[in-house]
Amino acid sequence: MKENPKQPSIDDFTPKTRFEFPDGAVLTLGTKCDGDDFMRYGVQMVFTLSPDSEPGMNILLPPHSIDVLIPVLQDLANQARFIMGQNMVEYPPMPETGKPKRKRQPTKKAAE
Questions:
Q1: Which of 1, 16, 46, 110 is 20 to 30 A distant from 102 in Cα terms?
Q2: For 29-77, what is each residue's pLDDT tens digit?
Q3: DSSP summary character for residue 34
Q4: What's 43's domain CATH number?
């Protein structure tokens, strides 16, 4: 029996998301391991003009950059809706990525 020397990675188990546009362009989103450091993962975006062509864009973004990118994309989408005369969309607020605030413990008053 032949063994597969390649260790499976998260890329092998997580499904990629494909957006196919009417003009034949395809945008694929998924996770990808960084080639230099196999313990670091990022979000991979691949854009091709047609399914048979070479990728026109292939970038690997760090996970934390997506938290910054999403609100910008939402704002740009609303700008495009405004220009086309469509209704604006209220997006739910993004969760804060900072440290959670600790609750203050009530101080005990000294017994008199």
A1: 110
A2: 888 876 666 677 788 888 999 878 888 888 888 888 888 888 999 999 9
A3: -
A4: 3.10.450
Strand partners for 44: 30, 60
Number of independent structural domains in the chain: 1
Contact by Cβ (8 Å): 56, 48 = yes
| Whole-number Å distance between alpha carbons of 49 and 57 | 10
Provide the whole-model pTM. 0.58
DSSP bridge pairs for 32: 42
Domain that holds residue 41: 13-83
Within-domain flag for 100: no
For residue 65, give both structure tokens.
């950059």
Calpha distance 71→28 (Å, rounded):
20
